Structures
1.
Amino acid sequence: GAVVSQHPSRVICKSGTSVKIECRSLDFQATTMFWYRQFPKQSLMLMATSNEGSKATYEQGVEKDKFLINHASLTLSTLTVTSAHPEDSSFYICSARDLKRGEYNEQFFGPGTRLTVL
Amino acid sequence: AQSVTQLGSHVSVSEGALVLLRCNYSSSVPPYLFWYVQYPNQGLQLLLKYTTGATLVKGINGFEAEFKKSETSFHLTKPSAHMSDAAEYFCAVSDSGYSTLTFGKGTMLLVSP
């Protein structure tokens, strides 16, 4: 149980295009989802927290208009990187939390999406 | 604000040897502490967590960690390393059951035959 999927696992795009990454909780309802960015050999940096049905809360320094987050249902959150540039190339990881199942703040992580912008 | 310090970006051990990965935290309130493992190009998998109660926490794959408040530490140990333990390990802290996680920079565990 507590499986989180991400799609796609890898994406290569041209500079200036937009890319959408999906994060799904497969066997539970995720009241909250988190989006992280991980640079090579570095830690996870929280980008934003999204709660179903409300606007995402972005961390300081993260551009809201560039990283659009939508949490339209209890099982799906999407991250859209708009007008992507090479510096946006990174490993993006989502996680989901179910207050019914994941007490004590346990987050269930997706497998990540490797974005390469040419 | 909370923070996590993981000493040593890389730790090398021989197969069968003791594994010790260090984690120190800073928190103004009683912390919730976590260890996650990440294999290449994959997401994070929870190894173990400390919330309240017993300070020695046992996790999956034979790992355990001990919460030491006086030392503000939550070191991860395993008595005998396996080749399959080679991965990146992240320590994380939160200040409640519902707040966000703050991660350390990670420690890459290398296991040699």
2.
Amino acid sequence: EIVMTQSPATLSVSPGARATLSCRASQSVSSNLAWYQQKPGQAPRLLIYGASTRATGVPVRFSGSGSGTEFTFTISSLQSEDFAIYYCQQSHNWPYTFGQGTKLDIK
Amino acid sequence: QVQLQESGPGLVKPSGTLSLTCAVSGGSITNSKWWSWVRQPPGQGLEWIGEIYHSGNTNYNPSLKSRVSISVDKSKNQFSLKLSSVTAADTALYYCTRKNYELQYLGGVYWFDPWGQGTRVIVSS
């Protein structure tokens, strides 16, 4: 099983600032990496797939990069609605696995 | 667009079988896609349970494989999850979702979208 490790567990950032989240895979997942946003009481929402492709309707302030085992997710200028938990997920090998999540807090 | 809706009992007794259904609307379940179940224990992260193709082919998470079964009903445009011998550790929010595919420069990539709203299942006597 590929283990996905996200860091940090919690990130406190001020509105308008830049947030950078990391995700590391225990073995290469090529570019088979997606990022999801989850708010309390809601289902996960797809933001990024293929490591760097924004999903339909996702604002340009969200971006992803990386391949292999190291991935980065960036929000260029945090809006109030962006404070949530973010998960990375690999679909390179079964079983598909998620990171433990990074909680983005208001500073 | 495609929408997913989970349904099923919210309370299951220990050692019993959890049974959930995901109704697909706005598109056909036979539309060359894989359909998955994902769960989220209270306050925890996401765990992929397994997936099914409309032909009936399945893939399961080895951690649950001995207890899980996913089936498809093309006539009703829905797919179902059964998890047997449940314990309190199976208490979770259960989501159904669709796996999508795209061929990119480095190869094929997959992702989950859309997701159902989730259904809460509590295992308790």
